[in-house]
Amino acid sequence: MTSKNHPNYTAPKKLDTIWGYFIGKKVKYDYAFKLECVKLVLESDYSAEAVSNQKGLNESNIRKWVGFYKTQGERGLLPRKNRSYSTVFKLKVVQSIDKEFLSLRDAVSNLTYQMLVLL
């Protein structure tokens, strides 16, 4: 079932067991699902909390995706690989946090976006 045309689509659940206990694995959400959630918040006037309750996922994910979408557009919702950051980049992040009073997430997002624009 895809989220594209199904308003009651909920987030996938991945469960595994270790020694008989259920543990949750990190779930990767596809681009279409993230975009649908973002558009519900930005265009349909749902709160991040309402969307998270409706879709069955953590509200912080919704807020993170909305932030990525606002700063980077649809590109911000595409999958990213884990990255190793240079010392220079890390220093710029710390300076950005100090100078612009940004959160770590916002500072990294802004600097990463600036690097992409320069490419």
Describe the protein.
The protein has 119 residues and is mainly alpha-helical. It folds into 2 domains: 1-79, Arc Repressor Mutant, subunit A (Orthogonal Bundle); 81-119. The protein is 53% helix and 7% strand. The chain contains 5 helices and 2 strands. The chain has a two-stranded antiparallel sheet. The radius of gyration is 17 Å and the shape is elongated.
List the helices and strands and how they pair.
Layout: E1 15-18, E2 21-24, H1 31-42, H2 48-55, H3 59-72, H4 87-100, H5 104-118
Antiparallel strand pairs: 1-2
Largest sheet geometry = 2 strands, antiparallel
CATH topology grouping of the largest domain: Arc Repressor Mutant, subunit A
- Beta percentage is 5-15%
- On the 0-100 scale, what is the average pLDDT? 78
Q: Which class of secondary structure composition applies to the elements? A: mainly alpha
Quickly name the level 1 CATH class of the largest domain.
Mainly Alpha
Cα radius of gyration in angstroms: 17 Å
Lateral arrangement of strands in the main beta sheet: 1-2
- Helix-strand pattern: EEHHHHH
CATH architecture descriptor name of the largest domain: Orthogonal Bundle
In short:
By secondary structure, the chain is mainly α.
